[in-house]
Amino acid sequence: MPQTPYQMINGLSEVIGNYDAVILDLWGVVHDGVTPYPNSVPAMKALKEAGIPVALLSNAPRRSSVVVARMEEMGIDRGLYGPAVASGEIAYHQLRDRVDAWYGKLGRKVFRVGPVRDHSMFEDQDVEVVDTLDEADWMLVTGPDDDHDPVSKYEDMLHLALSRDLPMLCPNPDREVIRGGERIICAGAIAGRYEELGGDVRWEGKPLASAYDFCLQAFDMGPDARLLVVGDSLSTDVAGANAAGLDIAFVTGGIHAEELDAPRGTLPDKARLDQLLEVTGRHVTYAMGDFCW
């Protein structure tokens, strides 16, 4: 099996001298949706002390302001990072402006699937949230209605939506995440099933290039900036960095920890990681067991 060229590191301090700025994922890297990981805030403080600007790029299906407020509730100081870009913010601007042809065809009446915490997607939008698919022009899926729902719970709903040819907006391509130590599905799992059935899905967020473009515009670092992405998902963070041509530090102790048989803070067996990278067709620059300095 061909070996993927990458470096195993114990912390960012070993390589950060090669970079001008960091693009940081949140869920699975900085926090678990409930609390920050023990090493993440110290690492962000160290980056600030080293003069390395940090931008956040998250597949959170809500406004960026909501993401920032939630981080502050967790005790993550706003002064530790610069631009904060959520995939929900990207979708929000597209939905508000409707310059893109796909968005331009959407009607006003939307059927929503997802928790109350994602209602910020409708702030100042010219839309009407309806209660049934029969009333809807399109669908917005930001996640399961309840964290413990399986995708199968939505099967009948998806078939009905397909029969009405309803387009679906999904501002979170993640299929699953670990929240408070428990693995739960994300919006991407529901939208992915709809797409499998033949439904029309518009995705926003990583790994799409538009997510990185939106983040880089907010960062305003210039075209020659040496950027390092830090993320834990091969299908979103790593795939997105690969597509954007950016170096990535892959946090192996995140969503793939069980698959790699290496708990957070420990480095996996290299042969096992090589095999996973080979199977998924991804490339990483560095592998680290945790986001730490």
Lateral strand order in the biggest sheet: 1-14-13-12-2-3-4
The CATH class designation of the largest domain is Alpha Beta
The low-confidence runs, each spanning 5 or more residues with pLDDT under 50, are none
Major sheet characteristics: 7 strands, parallel
Explain what you see.
It is built from 10 helices and 14 strands. It is an alpha/beta fold and 293 residues long. The chain has 2 domains: 132 residues, HAD superfamily/HAD-like (Rossmann fold), CATH 3.40.50; 98 residues, HAD superfamily/HAD-like (Rossmann fold, 3-Layer(aba) Sandwich). The strands form 3 sheets. Strands 1-14-13-12-2-3-4 form a 7-stranded parallel β-sheet, with helices on both faces. A 5-stranded parallel β-sheet has the order 6-5-7-8-11, with helices on one face. Helix 1 links the parallel strand 2 and strand 3. The two termini are 32 Å apart.
